[in-house]
Design brief:
alpha+beta; NADH Oxidase; four-stranded antiparallel beta sheet; 13 helices; 4 strands; globular
């Protein structure tokens, strides 16, 4: 087992950070690693926004559901799907100004996510910690306004970045047999589902029951297992439908939903 594989296996989301700045030289190494990521057609259809300024971070605080690591970390990175730059280049070179459609959004989103994971891995290899925030996509429109994102740019993922001031326990992942299929997709029997999720359910419920913030909610909503935590507390249908509506409206506003030449 080499050091890099060990690093991957020991990943933790870091939510508490030392009061220590990330110097420009270290940040540049992380950003250089990010832009070495795989990218569709070598287009690099993404942009990375570095936020250090407290005022900017305060403006993003509500959009990120008031998660404290945004303010506590010295750096916050936002990775955006970006065809604004590419379309300007095309226009200036008398080329067809494409990439204003949903397929282009997906391509740019994947590019942004790949770059973000390169940055995360580079940061951890240098002794820093990160915590991805799913709120980036959920609040894309609000974050886009704070960051002055032009047409054809949408925030996809973001993470806090700094030197860890905690060492949280590793969270259980599903076993390899639960997520890997050979040659073709092999659907899951009820027995296989129970087996695949057994350990994750046990560890997850143990963690939530030991968290005073969640204990009351578990009792209030009569929650018995981790599946119910996911659907009744963390990711409700109502919230996801609202986020979906907001995101689709923002994609239209950002000129990423052209269909049938319209």
């Amino acid at each position: 087992m080499n050091n890099f594989i060990e690093q991957l296996r020991s990943h933790r989301s870091i939510r508490k950070y030392m009061n220590k700045e990330v110097c420009d030289d270290v940040l540049d190494v992380i950003l250089e690693a990010a832009i070495c990521a795989s990218t569709s057609g070598n287009m690099q259809a993404y942009s990375i926004i570095v936020s250090r300024d407290k005022t900017i971070k305060e403006q993003m605080f509500n959009a990120h559901f008031e998660q404290t690591m945004l303010m506590e970390s010295p750096v916050f990175l936002t990775f955006c799907a970006d065809f604004n730059r590419k379309r300007k280049w095309l226009s200036q070179n008398s080329a067809a100004n494409n990439f204003d459609n949903y397929m282009s959004f997906m391509i740019a989103s994947i590019d942004a996510i790949l770059a973000s994971q390169n940055a995360a891995l580079a940061a951890e290899s240098l002794g820093l910690g990160i915590c991805y925030m799913g709120t980036t996509l959920a609040s894309a429109s609000e974050i886009g306004k704070v960051l002055d994102l032009p047409e054809n740019v949408v925030p996809i993922v973001g993470f806090s970045l700094g030197y860890p001031d905690e060492e949280p326990v590793l969270k259980k992942r599903l076993p390899l047999k639960g997520v890997v299929h050979y040659e073709k997709y092999s659907d899951y029997s009820p027995e296989a589902i129970d087996e695949i999720y057994a350990e994750k359910n046990f560890e997850g419920m143990k963690r939530f029951k030991n968290d005073p913030k969640f204990t009351k909610q578990l009792e209030e909503f009569d929650i018995e297992n981790l599946a119910q935590v996911y659907t009744q507390l963390k990711y409700t249908e109502k919230s996801h439908l609202e986020y979906s509506k907001n995101l689709l409206e923002y994609l239209c506003e950002q000129n990423f939903l052209k269909l049938n030449g319209v």
